[in-house]
Amino acid sequence: MESQPDATPSQAPIWSRVGATLLDSVFLFITLVSIGGLTVGLIPYPDLNRFFNLGCIPLLSWLYFAVLESSESQASYGKQLFGLRVMREDGGRLGFGQASLRYVGGVTTLATLCIGFLPALFSARRQALHDWLSKSLVVRRA
Question: Where are the alpha helices (DSSP H) in 70-114?
Fold first, then answer.
């Protein structure tokens, strides 16, 4: 079921987005370290264990953001705690592909010394590069 767009969504403050990202990072770190600790006992080969963990980190991080931001909640757990949600520019809910593109854009921004976050400081809609690429907005939850 498609969620109804808000009449006038309020743009998310930059510091709320930063705080939500920090909470998501802590949550993912704890989760991934826990999974990594579990695989140590299950996979008897250290090289295979390292390969498995290195493969899990990007895969689980992508799924975490793409699944949650395209779900009914429209937000990762960090965004939910800060009262934020991600939506399409037209006010609808992101699809899984659009949320995946947003994630890849965010990772690319991190890999390029966070240059892609600068537009969020100066644009009226507070869109970072990954928001612009995926035609999405981060707004306060109504």
Answer: 77-81, 96-111
Euclidean distance between CA atoms 79 and 70, whole angstroms: 13
What's the helix, strand, coil split of the chain in %, to 5? 60, 10, 30
Sequence-separated (6 or more) residues with CB below 8 Å from residue 142: 6, 9
What is the domain count for the chain?
A: 1
Mean pLDDT of 41-56: 70
Structure tokens at 68: 């949650």
The string of pLDDT tens digits covering residues 60-90 is 999 999 999 999 999 999 999 999 999 999 9
Q: Which of 37-46, 50-59, 64-73, 95-104 has the lowest mean pLDDT?
A: 37-46
In a domain, 5, yes or no: no
Q: Is residue 120 in some structural domain?
A: yes
Is 42 within the bounds of a domain? yes
